[in-house]
Automatic annotation (TrEMBL), chains A, B:
This is Alpha-1,4-glucan:maltose-1-phosphate maltosyltransferase. HAMAP family: GlgE. Its EC number is 2.4.99.16. PANTHER family: ALPHA-1,4-GLUCAN:MALTOSE-1-PHOSPHATE MALTOSYLTRANSFERASE, GLYCOSYL HYDROLASE FAMILY 13 CATALYTIC DOMAIN-CONTAINING PROTEIN. The record marks D486 as: Transition state stabilizer. Alpha-maltose 1-phosphate binds at K267, Q327, D362, N400, K539, Y540. Pfam families: GLGE_C, GlgE_dom_N_S. Maltosyltransferase that uses maltose 1-phosphate (M1P) as the sugar donor to elongate linear or branched alpha-(1->4)-glucans. Is involved in a branched alpha-glucan biosynthetic pathway from trehalose, together with TreS, Mak and GlgB. The active site is at D399, E428. It comes from Zestomonas insulae. Belongs to the glycosyl hydrolase 13 family. GlgE subfamily. Keywords: Carbohydrate metabolism, Glycosyltransferase, Transferase.
Amino acid sequence: MSLESYRKPVDTLSGSLRIEEAIDLPRIAIEAVSPTVEGGRFAAKAIAGRTLTVRAVLIADGHDKLGARVVWRELPAGDWQHVPLKPLGNDRWEAHFVPPRACRLAFAVEAWWDVYASYADELKKKYAAGVPISLEVHEGELLLEKSAKVAHGEHAAALQGVLTRLRDTESLDRRVGVLLAPETARAMAQVEAHPHRVRSALYPLEVERRLAEFASWYELFPRSASNDEQRHGTFRDVIERLPEIAEMGFDVLYFPPIHPIGRTHRKGRNNALTTVEGDPGSPYAIGSEEGGHEALHAELGSFEDFRALVAAAREQGLEIALDFAIQCSPDHPWLKQHPGWFSWRPDGSIRHAENPPKKYEDIVNVDFYAADAMPELWLALRDVVVGWVEQGVSLFRVDNPHTKPLPFWEWLIADVRGRYPQTIFLAEAFTRPAMMARLGKVGFSQSYTYFTWRNSKAELQEYLEELNEAPLSECYRPNFFVNTPDINPYFLQTSGRAGFLIRAALATMGSGLWGMYSGFEICEAAPVPGKEEYLDSEKYQLRIRDYRAPGNIVAEIAQLNRIRRQNPALQTHLGFQAYTAWNEHILYFGKRSADRSNFILVAISLDPHNAQEAHFELPLWELGLADDAATEGEDLMNGHTWTWYGKVQWMRIEPWVLPFGIWRIRVPGDVAAPAAPAAK
Amino acid sequence: MSLESYRKPVDTLSGSLRIEEAIDLPRIAIEAVSPTVEGGRFAAKAIAGRTLTVRAVLIADGHDKLGARVVWRELPAGDWQHVPLKPLGNDRWEAHFVPPRACRLAFAVEAWWDVYASYADELKKKYAAGVPISLEVHEGELLLEKSAKVAHGEHAAALQGVLTRLRDTESLDRRVGVLLAPETARAMAQVEAHPHRVRSALYPLEVERRLAEFASWYELFPRSASNDEQRHGTFRDVIERLPEIAEMGFDVLYFPPIHPIGRTHRKGRNNALTTVEGDPGSPYAIGSEEGGHEALHAELGSFEDFRALVAAAREQGLEIALDFAIQCSPDHPWLKQHPGWFSWRPDGSIRHAENPPKKYEDIVNVDFYAADAMPELWLALRDVVVGWVEQGVSLFRVDNPHTKPLPFWEWLIADVRGRYPQTIFLAEAFTRPAMMARLGKVGFSQSYTYFTWRNSKAELQEYLEELNEAPLSECYRPNFFVNTPDINPYFLQTSGRAGFLIRAALATMGSGLWGMYSGFEICEAAPVPGKEEYLDSEKYQLRIRDYRAPGNIVAEIAQLNRIRRQNPALQTHLGFQAYTAWNEHILYFGKRSADRSNFILVAISLDPHNAQEAHFELPLWELGLADDAATEGEDLMNGHTWTWYGKVQWMRIEPWVLPFGIWRIRVPGDVAAPAAPAAK
């Protein structure tokens, strides 16, 4: 099988088409191939081991039958695999296959005129209608003979067998029986020419490991891990905290930068422009005389300590994620070693960084397109990432990627993933929607989202729906962080404990990826007044917490993560469907796994202060059940099971007990796979 | 300006990107360019003289200002034109231009880093904030100097003037004034380098004359034009009917095939398989000893008569449309002259045509991919069309195009339109939606639709909305035929006169293109019982009618067409917006012209038997008016004018009077152009 496409490029600009070109154009049009991103310019996202559905629209003149399949292989040179496309009606076709491991794949859609199937279909209809068909039977014999002539080996033998059976009988009924036999169809399928065969473009797929789509992230500042405000925390201290984090069900432990912190323009407590003795500074002011992005902040420990932490975390089922923040404190060694990587002002200074409205007086940015920076800076940054991968880190949360060039990310991610396919990049992009999607296209595995600013039922429902639809569904995986060191959501500042449970339920049930920054589990919410910032932010100082403080929600978080691990429907943001609950404070939706066997219903009251009640609809129609059917449900927070009778049910949610309900409903085993979407 | 794109092809399949390639990739991403079809593979549709809106999403890292424009030219080698793209917010940009005439165009989107605009924006903000800016002013001087060095002629002089004014003053305020002056911005825009400039692919546009989007078609069988059942009608008889057709406001007069009719297997009355003496046969059984697709059926008249008819029609403002039906009676000369253009069965016969469930025993199809047919048959068919164009015909209704190869249409339409850009092709495709859209993509100007089978309010509203959205809005123009010789809609079989008025109003108000087959104006509806066929169908016999019969709707049709001519909003199917009327039998919508000055409201009761009443909303919000505003309206069917007070109004529709209302509302002259769509 060759990579060459049968589809010739056409000069659509001239407006004319030479007759020879027209005759060579594919007779069958292939449209709407999915999953694809920007017509194949970028890879669509897939997960190793998870069934992938390929869809296409095939359009051909007339009424003959088409054959079609998906061909795919691992790049650069795996063996070609193929799987049949099956018609769904209205020219839409679908195929499924399972990418076996993290890699880059390419797939294409092939289609052809299925001459024998068209013939057999017509013969069958005419035979059933009782019209004269001796001419049709003769035509069938000719088709078989034609193919037998070009067949070899076992295929030739099979066809000769069919022809012998056909000629051995004078009975029209038996001859029709031979022509319509499944083995005749199979023999012809092996041999018959495929006229008007066409292959689509090849479309790339980036297949990632499961953690790229299903993971719970826990963020902490290692320097606070000492649990002693007078002593700078260390990687060894973090090791002590691992069991409790693992017990809450997290998979990823993420640290803000752990590199040497600059002293020039160092920020004091609460983002002050001046410091007092002992202020540690923001870890985002990366680089000092002790080193830059490749170095460790000495007070945290040695590389040996760091590797010990990575290993200890793995034993607890946790992977370490590091922050990749491409910026420099004015003390970063690069300013002296590579002044050509920066853009200098006429007075010999460098403009400090901004991400409006935020100002970062303690950091400066590199200039990716400075003459001296291409390619040295790009390569140096790649080497920073590779260096940390070699220390056992395979997840990177990338700081403000939208302020760095898109081609840089496209190159860096492809380069690193080419060497280490397990690497996962999370984009910390809070910017305009087109840029956030584009970062997914150029290679980020997942992204921060607008989740923290979606609070009403309508906002949440619309957002979850948008994430489930193309183009986002094919290029963008949302990681729902409930808070970050930069975001102390207004809602949580006044919601009390119930609000934290609400946001935890929304995040854990809404997406396969969610994250929290430490303090959330003890409902920490004191703000800089009027701002979405934490008071006494850990970005500028150590913070000691009592993680067992009364009112903590550790048990609930652990249970939510447990439910996620037990239910495939909750291991992705895909498969979301809003259902009807007649109360504007109750968001009510279903998540269903791609194989449709796991079906979870979630109702979350968005009101942390008052009880809310609602009638709601059980989606019996999705289960192929009548409106008065009985359904078995299980409350996944407390294990109770019961039977619902009928479609419309009633609920009451008391936020002081639990502001949400999560139910698994039994999918009737005897219900056939759901019908294809209705033809138009 | 060169055609070369700055965008380099990237090997997305290898999954890796060399660093040199990455550095050369465009820094600015261009996405979602519209109007485009299949990424530029096909031309999007446009109309000469009508404002075209180009949209694109431009994505770049950071916070600097971009500049952008659309470049376009007539193909193959017109002068390049350009028009600025303006930002709408959220990375979306928009530009407008007016294609001057029927032709093929190409356009592209260009974007670049606007260094001076970014600089000036920052200077302005800092100046307003009162922070120190002497360094910024110095940077501005350096930017001007840098550009002055590379400028020539008047641009150099302009920049030198700016620099002189800047250096002539010590006052910081005045220096800022010079740097921010509009003439400084203009001078820099002329000269400044455009770093990171990128150009999108070139996208083709097929620009057609207005009749491709706004036309009223009238269909008749010339052989019935004698008004005497005993005498075969002629082209001369048709000339007699022209004034009454023109007075009804039609633009296009369309004939079923006018070629010699075969005798073998000729169909009798009501599709009988046998004939009696005098049966004229179906005109779709094209070809006899007298000739084929290039010939005239002798009883209709000579070529001289035909040209006289074409000329007389033009004098009445009517253009003639012919049927292009690629099929042959068994008597067509091609069967003998070119047996290799057909697919012969083992018994020496040719399979008769079918379009399930319809059977056409009197015709056979050509085989486009027969060895002898490529390219001779294709060329012969092209020559048939060109021959009729040379007789003065520039509209073709193409019979069953979906049963002929798509590449054939793509080639034929481009070839004919390359010679005669005024040519318009209407696809008679009643098939699956993907094929109908694809026919628009390969070049058909317009298409038959599902209109005749959309009867309920929900069906009609959904269909009109779908036609207004991409991809259909960019590749498919709907021609709403209310009936055809093949479709006697079930609704009209029992609706009585009011039903004909309902369907006429839906068609004329819903699309710029509508059509009717003669008999509709006198509410003819007698069916073959239980079928959507006309009894005593004119396809198989002459039909004499009294076009002044009592109960005719000639005056209403004329008034509907008059309203269309007077209101640009009604000259396209685009610009449709459903509004709220609280009655499921009343479809209520607005049509608004692209320049938003012409605004029509339409309410149509879908109930031909009973009066219907409803409260309904005037779309005051679209006019920038408060909910209690007064609006002036004019009833376009009777000329009454009045003032509505407030948003919610009431209507009563009595089908025995008129089953619809059409109102023009005054667009307040002092309302500013509507705001851009809200940012997300």
